[in-house]
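Full entry
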Amino acid sequence: MTAILVCTHGHAAKELIRSAEMICGVQKNTSFVSFEEGMTVESLQHKIVKEVQTLNLEKGILFLTDLKGGTPFNVLVVLLENYKQSELVAGVNIPLLLEAFIQRDSQKIDKLADQSAIAAVQGIYRYTMPTQQIEDDF
């Protein structure tokens, strides 16, 4: 099973995982790291490395983060070279997590990253109210 680590600003990572687990059940080999206000880049990096050590990396690790170019993303970019099989996807949302959770046993990590990114985009939808047709009495 591919390991998944979610790292976001604030407590979003923990809550995204909890929300996804409400839909597809509690997940093994999954963890999160929160980048909190006042935390240094070095302490975030240390926290990520420590958390990754708790995961089984036999099938690789999928790193998910909230924002391309943000501190969690930038730290993970540096750390990627330390992990043989790893992928990084920014823009984590619940559809992305669900796809990753459901497909991680059956897909290689590169394909898992691709499919998860597609699910994230496809999960965005703008609903518009249907317009009512006004019948003319004339």
